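Dear colleagues,

As part of the handover before I leave the project, I'm documenting each prediction I ran so the next person doesn't have to rerun anything. This entry is a single chain, and its sequence is reproduced below.
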Amino acid sequence: MSTIEKIHFRGVMRPLRTTFSTSLGQKHLMKSVIVRVALKDSSSGLGECPTSFVLKEETIPAIKGIIREVIPILKSSPIDCYGDKIEQFRKTYPRNPMTISGLEVALFRAALQHKGISEHGCFGGRLKTLETDITIPYITDLGAIKEWINYALNKKFTIYKLKVSGSVDEDKRFFSGVYRLLRERIDTFTIRLDGNQGFTEKTYFHFVDFLMKNNYPIELFEQPLPKNDYRGLEEIKRHTPVPVILDETVFNTADLERAVQDCLCHGINIKVAKSGIVESLKLYNGAKKYGLTLMMGCMTETMVGLSAGINFAAGTGGFDYMDLDAIHFLHHRNSYEGITISGPQYFL
């Protein structure tokens, strides 16, 4: 059994190809902290701690500060015992789940390399190919939207996830404009919506009524209401004609149990970046048990973090929707650690 010898970390900042804008804010840069865990036998693993509009306390200084604090606890300990420490860190830093998840991924990968096990194989190795959607941010600049849609169409994307704001009149104009641009260029495509907690129960139904009256085909609506609006989500689940997928409401199995017991959704979005490896597996198994649909999602992150979601989804082979498009917001190479990127396709 090898022990943890060193833990290094560094901040990374990269410009985005287009403004990433949701109901919660907008950004032009991707900011993360990359963590590297090195073992005494020279095995190592990388993880990524991203930043997000949703978890405003997870700033680059805060992420680095927590990693500095936990290094003495992890250093020289057996790699096989890291799970108990991650569980302890989640209790110590409850407001910083992505920091702990990025660290967990690095430890997990170091342990796999030590044992000679591939990440894809560890999760089951069931699929060799995945197809992701691509996000169309909520941008009111028509020129910028056209440019981004042209990029997506040239890359042969057929599944589009539109960010909407919760301001119904503006969302109507935005959605109609994007839909028209897509219809002019492509015959067959799928549209998903993501509210990022921007709607109320009333504005949700107002907007969905508009979509239904105009016969707009919508595959799903992700996180329309604030994450803790359980009563509103219950009402939406009861009456909506569109499947509702929860993201920010569900971080762990306790959240999942509440979502199931209170009938809050049709499915959940699992993100390794927010829930880590162990908790994501529990969420995956729980969702399967309760018959929920599954989306594999991502944050704004590099392939260091995104590849964890890709390997998880392809390995388990049990996801209904792929939302693993983060790398397309960055200037990138077309391969990473055994994963080849070809437009919306990932080949493992």
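The chain has a mean pLDDT of 96. Residues 168 and 207 are 6 Å apart (CA to CA).

All the best with the project,
I.
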